[in-house]
């Protein structure tokens, strides 16, 4: 029996023993940076998605908490969690393929719905994830200090610690942090964010969005989500649709989107190393440091 087959059998056995689900067929799915991802056909006819990651560093229970929170806010485009523990997550299968320009208007509408949910403070009740990386939260009365300390500084320090971010870039990030109150603004209310809206986490069927996957949930400024759309070929249609429900300040695109993209670029450097230093340099330069 091959090693791959042994791994699959271990996953299917965990689904049977822990989740109590009988599997009659399975197939691998793309998107396995954090965990092995498979589409399972169950004996009762349901099709589900299973994520599995074994070991002490597995945090699929935290991912399940985020998915449950988003599902409660927008069940039409967010999977329902069927079973979760740190090593195993089973959720409903969401059909569709990767985002196309035709679904851009729909993305603006679905994102606007998600951004209609608010909290009394910024952050989240417990840690969350960006990919496999564990993010601290807690609650804050102000967004700018939260984003500065719990996202920019925290993630930059982690990237330095794992050897992917050079000291020169860390110094520039710190300069940005010191000036952050001049660059960012407080939103009207803490808004529920997906938090990691790159195109591979969005599924569509024709001109309709069918799923928002793999979130990095936080209550914050909606501009953080919108910054993931800036620069994409479908951006204009998304923003036009979104503006029918929520305003977007004009200076967001020039002044604040680059700052939020610094955070995304830091995460890419943390994951993938020096090949994303050029993007980080660009976002920092556009942020004025």
- Please provide the count of β strands: 14
> Which sequence of SSEs, written as H and E, runs from N to C?
HEEEHEEEHEEEEHHHEEEEHHHH
CATH fold call of the largest domain: Aminoglycoside 3'-phosphotransferase, Chain: A, domain 2
In terms of DSSP E residues, the strand content is 15-25%
Averaged pLDDT: 95
Number of helices: 10
Kindly summarize this structure in a few lines.
By secondary structure, this protein is an alpha+beta fold.
Describe the overall structure.
The protein is of the alpha+beta class and 289 residues long. It has two domains: 90 residues, Phosphorylase Kinase, domain 1 (2-Layer Sandwich), CATH 3.30.200; 190 residues, Aminoglycoside 3'-phosphotransferase, Chain: A, domain 2 (Alpha-Beta Complex), CATH 3.90.1200.10. The chain contains ten helices and 14 strands. The radius of gyration is 19 Å and the shape is globular. The model has no long low-confidence stretch (mean pLDDT 95).
Describe this protein with a few key phrases.
alpha+beta, Phosphorylase Kinase, domain 1, Aminoglycoside 3'-phosphotransferase, Chain: A, domain 2, three-stranded antiparallel beta sheet
């Amino acid at each position: 029996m091959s090693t791959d087959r042994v791994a699959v059998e271990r996953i299917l056995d965990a689904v049977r023993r822990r989740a109590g689900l009988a599997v009659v067929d399975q197939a691998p799915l793309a998107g396995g940076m954090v965990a092995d991802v498979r589409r399972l056909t169950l004996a009762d006819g349901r099709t589900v998605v299973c994520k599995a990651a074994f070991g002490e560093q597995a945090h699929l229970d935290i991912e399940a908490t985020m998915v449950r929170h988003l599902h409660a806010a927008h069940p039409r485009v967010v999977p329902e969690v069927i079973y979760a523990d740190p090593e195993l997550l089973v959720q409903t299968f969401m059909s569709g393929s990767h985002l196309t320009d035709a679904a851009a208007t729909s993305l603006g509408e679905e994102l606007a719905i998600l951004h209609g949910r608010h909290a009394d403070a910024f952050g989240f009740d417990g840690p969350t994830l960006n990919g496999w990386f564990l993010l601290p939260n807690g609650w804050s009365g102000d967004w700018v200090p939260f984003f500065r300390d719990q996202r920019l500084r925290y993630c930059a320090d982690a990237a330095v610690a794992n050897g992917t971010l050079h000291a020169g870039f860390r110094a520039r990030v710190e300069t940005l942090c010191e000036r952050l109150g001049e660059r960012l603004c407080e939103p009207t209310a803490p808004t529920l964010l997906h938090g990691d809206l790159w195109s591979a986490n969005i599924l569509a069927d024709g001109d309709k969005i069918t799923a928002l996957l793999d979130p990095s949930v936080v209550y914050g400024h909606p501009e953080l989500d919108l910054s993931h759309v800036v620069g994409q070929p479908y951006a204009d249609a998304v923003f036009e649709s979104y503006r029918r429900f929520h305003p977007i300040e004009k200076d967001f695109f020039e002044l604040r989107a680059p700052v939020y993209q610094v955070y995304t670029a830091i995460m890419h450097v943390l994951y993938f190393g020096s090949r994303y230093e050029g993007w980080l340099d660009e976002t920092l330069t556009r942020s004025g440091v």
